[in-house]
Design a protein that fits this description.
Length: 105
Amino acid sequence: SLLTEVLEAVVSTQSTGQQATHFKKVSGPSRDDPNVTRYDYLSPCSPGDTGAMEMSWMNINGDDLLEPKVDMNDMLRSLTNCRPTVGQDDLKQHVQFTQDFGQEG
């Protein structure tokens, strides 16, 4: 289902942050006031990124962590990782039900 795909993508981005060994300072809207920009959030990054600092997410204050946004690549990856929640037999039963009783049942 779509919910499963979205949850997989969200969990995947959270896992990236939990497994990260390096973080860098980034800017983003303040959680207290979205009209104010903070320039001291920390976000997971590659060790070779400019400004990368070696640390664990466990060493970061939760208010200072800027979680990665879920993007199309995360969604596409979740499509390859998730198994269908509805099988072919379920679909056949649904089609047969619709043929027997119509859309409204």
